[in-house]
Amino acid sequence: MISNQILQNTIEGLKGITRIELCICDTEGKVLATTFPDAEEYEFSVLAFVESPADSQVIQGYQFFKVFDEHQLEYVLLARGSGDDAYMVGKVVVFQIQNLLVAYKERFDKDNFIKNLLLDNLLLVDIYNRAKKLHIDINVRRVVFVIETQTENDTVALETVKSMFSAKSKDFITAVDEKNIILVKELKSNEGYEDMDKVAKMILDMLNTEAMATVHVAYGTIVNEVKEVSRSYKEAKMALDVGKIFYSDKNIVAYNNLGIGRLIYQLPLSLCRMFIKEIFDGKSPDDLDEETLVTINKFFENNLNVSETSRQLYIHRNTLVYRLDKLQKSTGLDLRVFEDAITFKIALMVVKYMNYIETLDN
Amino acid sequence: MADISFRNVTKTFPNGKAAVKNFDLEIADGEFLVLTGPSGSGKVTVLRMIAGMEPVSGGELRIDGELVETGKIQKRNVGMIFQHFTLYPGMTVYDNMAFAMKLCQTPEEEIRRAVEETAKLFRIEKLLSCYPRELTELQKQYVAMARAQVHHPEAFLLLDLLGNLEFSARAKARNRLKELYKELGTTLIYVTDNAQEAVCMGARTVVMHHGQIEQAGTVEELLESPCNLFVAQFMNEPGFYTSEVKIVKGHTAVEALGDKFSLDVPAEWLPKLERAGCIGRKVLMGYTVTSRNVPEDGDMPEEMIPEPDSKVFFFDKETEKVIV
Q1: Which of A253, B68, B166, B226 might form a disulfide with A218, Cβ 3.0–4.6 angstroms?
Q2: Nearest C-alpha neighbor of A76 from the set A318, A62, A151, A199
Q3: Domain tally for chain A?
Q4: What mean pLDDT is reported for chain A?
Q5: How far from B68 is each of A209, B63, B73, B108, CA to CA, in Å?
Q6: Is A278 in the same domain as A321?
Q7: What confidence score (pLDDT) does residue A1 get?
Q8: Contact A248 B48 (CB under 8 A)
């Protein structure tokens, strides 16, 4: 992760102070930086040392040290001499390199990378360079899930999601804000939207039953490249929003399945106001009384079937007809006519959308 | 949790969709109840209301006599396992069971005791050090149930749990479930959209449709005397057919005349048919056809005529309520 140039500068600087020759090799024995010639000769000794359980050892007049990055062997350091001085200086150098690793991690951290990727904070060139450095495959199909919990700072939910996907380290989980957990999932070549729906159901069922959390899960489209991950994230967020407005009875919303809600969500507010004014002549369907709204919804639910609707509402058929006539008088729309019914249905959805936008503004 | 009581409970979602309507149901302490109905009938919403994950919109829901506040989400001590459950893949069975307790920072000793006790109850002590990938589907299911039992829930809510098992494993799991129910002594509510599964459970069964209860009763009651066409059809699928017939009273017997068949109506049914004014009129006849007459590779054909041992019901054409 640290460039060889930095390693070289470091050991040269330390040699200048301590006058002890130093060399850094990777775990395959390849020399990355050295202050003395012919360091390649020690390749076999390095390999043998890597295999040995010792953390430090004297071989052929050099102190060998292991440099770990979070328990993973990253480098082997050679310091010339077998005395106490060489041992002490070697330890100092190991300490220095380990700190460098931590500093670099922080900068190139995977977590940061993905967060920035999701939020579009990266230049295109940076995306590829960093992805490479962090060993993130560029051309793999991925999809972004957004999981919204009801309670803020729900650590149980986050831990549950992390544990569900932890065995597959290539999936990435983070919390962007207090209520949203994000899962960037890598897909196998044979996986498609059906499988994603299963994943969403699994997340929902697990969070419901294990974390006892009420959650909404949304996911974007499947993207083929790492640079498109942010698009999938935006889609998932939009799906979550659209789902809240139009499909509040559903806990899982897929971006590619938003139906008519998707169209309405894209409309400018001014256009919506004009449409509502045209249909309701300045009034709002919100002004309709509860009874009428229930009647209308039930009528739509039953596919404009008068007898079925009246049966389910426990009212006489004529009462329903009377209510529909009354509505026709006030709005000019006869819900028994398909054209009028569809206009009314869309108008109701547009009003829902306008109300939602207004609550956001306030 | 003891008893659960629904009085005229409704649940309407913010988008106006009424998922549950006028729902009345009493569930006794320690009862094994099966809730069934086609998908979208509101079963899951009922389950979620009991679990406290979905606020009640209207009516009275009492749990252990205590009124659940309308419009409020309350966490309850229930054990839930839904169809799409999963075990944490990177953890052993022990850690899977201990996970939630660890998150609550329960002392290690207490966790160990709870997990070991529960594992014994579910007979999975030998699996504690295994990883989920080493388990069979059936074992995974036991582990999932044990994981829920660790908290000593007052009720178990199971949603289509056996749906993802192979047919042979299902019977085994079902029997084990019944055994466990007896051992645990907690209220158990099993939800499924598969009527055959509901029948196999053999417990008191509630059939839901469009957010309402169509009929509640024992499996025998639902199979032998359904209250309407929907229940008869749902409980007897596959192999339930309907046909319009005319009830004709001859000299010696009463006959049901269909387009392609005629059938003698048992004499004891006559009073009921007469009372409903069906003689000489058309009614809807529903009948079961056993699948033995169906080619092995095919689905049930669209039309079949009744067999000698068919179960037969007559329904009113308008209301679809059962006449006899």
Answers
A1: A253
A2: A62
A3: 3
A4: 87
A5: 20, 7, 9, 34
A6: yes
A7: 66
A8: no
From A155, A163, A248, residue closest to B15, measured CB to CB:
A248
Based on the fold, state whether residues A27 and A77 are members of the same structural domain: yes
B89: nearest CB among A155, A167, A246: A167
- pLDDT at B15 exceeding the cut of 80: no
- In chain A, whose CA is at the least distance from the CA of B102? A156
Structural element, H or E, at residue A148: strand A142-149
Residues A170 and A255 in one domain: yes
Q: Is the dihedral of CA A292, A361, A218, B148 positive or negative?
A: negative
What lies within 8 Å, CB to CB, of B67 at 6+ separation is: B60, B61
- DSSP letter string over A233-287? HHHHHHHHHHHHHH-TT-SEEEGGG-THHHHHHTS-HHHHHHHHHHHHTT--GGG
Contact status of A308 with chain B (Cβ, < 8 Å):
no
Predicted confidence band of residue B34 (pLDDT cuts 50, 70, 90): very high
Q: Tell me the average pLDDT across B271-297.
A: 78
ipTM exceeds 0.85? no
Query: Using the beta-carbon criterion (under 8 Å), do B85 and A202 form an inter-chain contact?
Result: yes
Pure H helices in chain B: 43-51, 93-103, 108-121, 137-149, 167-184, 195-201, 219-224, 229-236, 270-275
| Pair A145, A230 in one domain | yes
CA nearest A158 in B: which residue?
A: B103
Indicate the residue of A164, A249, A297 with minimum beta-carbon distance to B86: A164
Dump pLDDT digits (tens) for A182-227.
999 999 889 999 999 999 999 998 888 877 778 899 999 999 999 8
Residue A127 lies in a domain: no
Q: What is the side-by-side order of every strand in the sheet holding A22-26?
A: A31-34, A22-26, A72-80, A62-69, A56-59
Query: Which chain B residues contact residue A164 at CB under 8 A?
Result: 86, 88-89
| Pairing label, strands B254-257, B240-249 | antiparallel
Report the CATH number at residue A232.
3.30.70.270
Rounded mean pLDDT, A43-59: 90
The residues with which B11 forms a beta bridge, in sequence order, are B20
Domain of A22, CATH number, reads 3.30.450.40
> Does any CB of chain A come closer than 8 Å to the CB of residue B74?
no
Q: Scanning every residue of chain B, which has its alpha carbon at the shortest distance from the alpha carbon of A308?
A: B319
Whether the CB-CB separation of A247 and B15 falls below 8 Å is answered with yes
Residue A181 lies in a domain: yes
| A156 touches B at CB < 8 Å | yes
Out of A263, A280, A306, pick the residue that ends a domain: A263
End-to-end CA distance of chain B: 40
- Return the pLDDT at A152: 66
Query: Is residue A43 included in any domain, yes or no?
Result: yes
The residue range of the domain holding A331 is 267-361
Looking at chain A from residue 199 to 238, which residues have their Cβ under 8 Å from any Cβ of chain B? 201-202, 204-206, 208-210, 212, 214
**Could you read off the pLDDT of B180-219 as tens digits, one per residue?**
898 888 899 999 988 888 999 889 999 999 899 999 999 9
Question: pLDDT tens across B159-183, in order?
Answer: 988 877 888 888 888 888 899 898 8
> Residue B90 is nearest to which of A156, A167, A210, comparing CB atoms?
A167
Q: Does the distance separating the beta carbons of B14 and A208 come in below 8 Å? A: no
Q: Which of A164, A210, A249 faces B13 most closely, judged by CB atoms? A: A249
Amino acid at B282: K
CB contact under 8 A, B103 and A204: no
Residue B102: band (very low, low, confident or very high) from pLDDT cuts 50, 70, 90: confident
